[in-house]
Amino acid sequence: MGLPQYTAAWVLKSQKGTESLSYVEHLALPTLKDDEVLVKIHAASLNYRDLVITKGGPRISVGKQDLVPGSDGAGVVEAVGSNVTAFSVGDHVCTHLTYALSDTEIPRFGDICNGLGQKVDAWNALFGLDCKAPRAGETVLVQGTGGVSIAALQFALAAGATVIATTSNLEKATKLKNLGAQQVINYKETPNWGEYAKSLTMDGKGVHIVVDVGGAFTLSHSLKAVRADGLVAVTGILGQAADVPTLALITGGGSGINLELAKALHARGISILIADIALHKDAINWLEKLSQKGDAAKVLFLKTNVTSWEEIEAAFDFFEGQFGRPPQIIVPGAGIYEASSPGFWDDRDAASHYKLFDINLVHPIKTTRIAIRRLRQAQLPGVILHLSSIVAQKPSVVLPLYSASKAAISQFIRCMSPLEDICGIRVVGVAPGVVDTPLFRDNPGALNHIDMKKDFLLPTDEVVRAMLSLLTETRYPSGTVLEIGDIGGWREVQLLNDPGPQGRSTKARSKAQEALSLVHQALNNDAQRRDSVTKL
After folding, report:
1. Where's the Enoyl reductase (ER) domain (predicted)?
2. Looking at domain 122-234, which CATH architecture does it have?
């Protein structure tokens, strides 16, 4: 029987995703050359790179049309060229594609299925371990349960090393332990998993090797986990630097949490527009220092009244005029506390429209709508990060407007969750407990609710770390509300059957009775007014 002239294949016509694949039933095979072998594929496995190639993107171009994608497969040699001596017809080998042509340097496998997934994954894992081979007594950190990480785990165990693995899935955690991982960290339950991995090492100095497959989304944690003389082997492309936006717009960035976030983003090379009604003295000092360093152009300030739709729109216009395109990081962070504005119990102004709702609720919703429109017009993905609060789940009769505004924001975030799949825009939120910011330090009204000495207040930098994780790590999908209740105490708030706020900052109640007395006072005043009206 002669050699086959045709094969069937899935052919990539363009790089717009899996929809670019077309099934070709009769694809002509090239002529077998003298130094080649023809392999019939019996089984194939899928790699992350195969999906990346179908989607394309920066630096990922196949350079030709009608490509048959694929990396790992195993099959049987059907024919050999006249110069081939190392292989014979019937040999079980691993190669690339259905009826693919390959050179003679093909590894042998006794069983066809055992050949699957051993080329790309195993060689990438070996690359990660090659520069600093693990030894008995050392610790290796692997990330997730992909092929590269599993291969690295097996190689490290074979060398006698201890392995720490990460996952977000209980079932996968069990599989990792069955494979030999001595410690498994759930990175969703332990957001600061890099530091935690370091603490698990025998001497507390960190792991010897990290096989990092997440790139931009995991590298900061890998650096926290590794010891001073250790190795971080960046082996995968799951999170490319190109995936991290470089432009941000922050409302309310003139003080508090949002100012500290602006500083952190700037330190990472991100250009920022702060849109706020005014700048706190800390912000003024920071901008002056940037100006002295010649770095002021990367952080701009625009006076903005966020209760005005026109001024928010103008802030986006100003941003695009300065930076040439819309921001891909948008933080509608401006907000006020009920104790610092006319609240529910202080309604003597009959014409009051509750300014708190305009700033805490309507403004972030408006900003989100404008951001989505601008990003879609520019055909860009983006991340919109909202500020909710634990009071969304722990409502207060003392602060009913503030509680209602934050509960509404949490629900609004969840409403926006489908956008990630529809157009690549993630809408997420952070829900901290009581935070040590100028909102409390400089606000006499707020001190009626908080005792700065007795109550535990979250450090601002802890909230900022969580915000950075939400902005840069795709493990937090659109619709995530991340509660920050304590140092290292992060958790995703569940829509149903949630246990409620956790951590020390959620229990700042040393002045609870004093705060409640203000409500009783308002109720008594109401009763006195009624008596006065009755007497008249």
Report:
1. 17-301
2. 3-Layer(aba) Sandwich (3.40)
